[in-house]
Amino acid sequence: MVVGIKDAVKLIGISIIACCAVLVCTMFLNFYFDIKEIKDMVSTEQAIIFYNAQVSTAKVVCSVSGGCLLITSVIMLLFYIKHYIDMHKKELGILKALGYSNLKIAKSFYIFGISVFIGAILGFLGAFLLMPAFYELQNKDKILPEIVIHFHPAVFVCFVILPTVLFALLAIFYAFLKLKKNVLLLLKDDFQVSSKIKKQKDSKVKDCLFIDDLRSTTLKSGKTLVFFIIFASFCFSAMTQMSASMKDLSSVMMGAMMLMIGIVLAFTILFLAITTVIKGNTKTIAMMQVFGYSQKECCKAILGGYRPLSYIGFVLGTIYQYVLLRIMVDIVFKDFDEVPVYEFDIPVMLISLVLFIGVYEIVMYCYSQKIKRISVKEIMIE
After folding, report:
1. How far apart are alpha carbons 208 and 193 in whole angstroms?
2. 115 with 151: CB under 8 angstroms?
3. Which of 25, 46, 315, 346 has most Cβ atoms within 10 angstroms of its Cβ?
4. Is 252 exposed, middle or buried (0-12, 13-18, 19+ CB in 10 A)?
């Protein structure tokens, strides 16, 4: 077996994203199926309007939230497969040299689907634990008849079985494509010390040019990581601001759930992305230390380029939550009189921004200390 259980356990980020996606989608889709069963019992005009609004809400939440998290899970899975192959390419090259085919090696990547299954089953079970309170809140004014919770096998198949199988097949197929390399290329060590790493003590301009160039190269070589950084900021911004609005538009429970999901997603994705950046550039950092570059200069070269991208993600998250809530209020619930008017909340946005800056800078400081502890001796021994 090329890929083992321990390697699948490292994909905890995919498990967390899958858990959040399945949790939200299961609650709303199960509610959609259950509320459909009382359609013939809805008779008053107000109840019909409210019923249609609830059905539309379930569709919008499942399609928008589920679709967004699904795309992120796919990108993260493909990234981890590529990262795994890059980190173990010599072992894989040896296997190919011994006569193992690309397909035979790629088949072992099916185990990556376990990370999706773990997250999906936890999200599914968590949804059913929250459903009693969720159903009660959705019909707290008793406008509709009592909505009974049912177990729908189609929901389980759709959000647990199907994603596990599809992600396992996707992992095998993508690994097969990435393994279509010459054996010599897999066995070759790509790392080469850049000739540009020269400490010119008498020329700060050259140092700045080198750091700027390395920062740009780091971003270009990790486009997927750029997406993760932006998405982490996006989740923090959108969910924290949206959760504050749920008190008036929905319920405290919905607000708390959105806040928890946003924080968990943001921290998980940011942690995985920055950790990968550091691990992927340990040799570069070590060589910079050898040539006399300070910890601050190393951090600026490796991590500095992600700061403006994180603020772009925050802005996108702010726009997303505003547009989504406007759609819910002005389109989905437009015929329902009790829904309050929603306006952009500047104080909440500023509070969210301050919290985001504080959290992001603390995380960057912690990782700067990790850069400081990178041992040149250990890197050279490798």
Report:
1. 18
2. no
3. 25
4. exposed
